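We now fix the convention by which a protein and its fold are recorded. The integers have meaning only within a learned vocabulary of local backbone shapes. A complete example follows; check for yourself that the lines match position by position.
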Amino acid sequence: MDESSFFIGWDKKEVLVRARNIVLVICLPVIEAVNHFIYREKVSVKVAPEEWIIEADISMMQSAMEAGTLSAVQLVQLYVERIRKHDGPINAILELNPDALEIAFSLDEERRHSGRRSMLHGIPILLKDNIDTCDRMHTSAGSVALANSIAPTDAFIVARLREAGAVLLGKANMTEWANAMSDSMWAGYSSRGGIVLNPYGPGNVFVGGSSSGSAAAVAANFCAASIGTETSGSIVCPASYNFAVGIKPTVGLVSRSGIIPLSRSQDTAGPIARTVTDAAILLGALTGEDERDEAMMHSGRRTCDDYTPFLDASFIHKARIGVPRYYCGELDEAAAAVLEAAIAVLRSLGATVVDSVELPCAGIEWDRNVVRHEFKKDLNDYLARLHPEVPVRTMKELIAYNKVHADVALKYGQGGLERCEETSGSLHEPVYLRALQHNRMMSREQGIDYALRAYQLDALLFQGHHGSEIAARAGYPLVTVPGGYASNGSVSTAGYVTDGPYGITFSGTAYSEPTLIKLAYAFEQATKHRFPPDIGLNVEGEPVGELESLYEI
């Protein structure tokens, strides 16, 4: 059977539902066989115990590789073995890169002969399943319709990671179509991959989305770090609930070319890591000029390729941070307690925390016509560029395909897709242009920029993803850092247990990543809240809590 047509046109439920498992079953033996055949004789294998990689950071990995006590091959082996043992109940990994060991071996050889390329040389990085890779991995946004789609080119950020010497370990599961398919879809669910569960309590603790697998994999120590994407909350939400650091960059800082689109005015990719330092390292590797992304034309000289100089904890002493209390009203007891404790820590570090900051945009209705028009236009353009074997070329064809394969593809319906298809998809219509102007004005001049100017602030502070919809419409950055762990066992109105990790999020104006990194780093160094989940037991769990709708399609 031709590999390119393996899944296309199949309507057998068991084949489509198990697509992820088939990919893993194929990839794991390939990796093991390649390891035995190529590397056993060429590498002196003194593999560190699995425990070594738990909470290991990028600097630790680089130091070990520079000292010759660890190789990139061994690092890949350790992560693959940990995934094999522990990903079953978590389901964060959609597929592994069958070429990962070969790439790692080549990078080890290069290190021996000419040194490392960067801090990411030989470091295993996981990608969200909506980021194109032109290799043997698929890119599907979690959809069975694209289950066997091989991208024609690498995404710009993938090319940057390869240039930096990163090992692309695999693709992470995600909320299908980045939560744009259905309002009732569970967080972390995709028809191709099934449901992602939170490693801090599979089946009990909310996982967040749509970069669910990217965050859960980092939390569970299945990779050194990962790349997620965000339209509205999709990096910071799962990072918060998985005790990870997430950076949602300014729209225009990181190229989106080669990423399955949702909203050109809001989409961005960013790092998810276990430490602010690792997130800063990864962010620097993602930046770079790309003429294919028009949003980057507005960045000027406000970007850089190294964000580690901003790991400066002393900045907190003179920082002014505002708390928009309107967004605290929707917090449950545990989340509110985490936020109050974080405010106390920031004050103890010398920061001036301005309470009860008012934003004129608080409580307004965002105009949904922006995302609806942009998604239809840009998804149609993306699908049209795929290989001819892919069964859908437009959003209309995608909707039709899902109806034919409804038993697999439509567990939660596709109301979001259908609402987008009802639009013209034109970005020149007055209804779209008015909506875009409204959202930007309210989120910027009547939102974040207003508050920063009126209260003379360096940043705003939110709990977790609350407030992320403002930064989404503005195209402004966010940095989430572990804020605390609650264990009161109460159940929220959404039906999920509120014990587990919570993050806090710093929000700023365009290209204020340096300031936000400084604040997040200072808080992290003072608190050290993060600890790894106990995933030693193979506990089966059921999903809990629908993804809170940060935007409606």
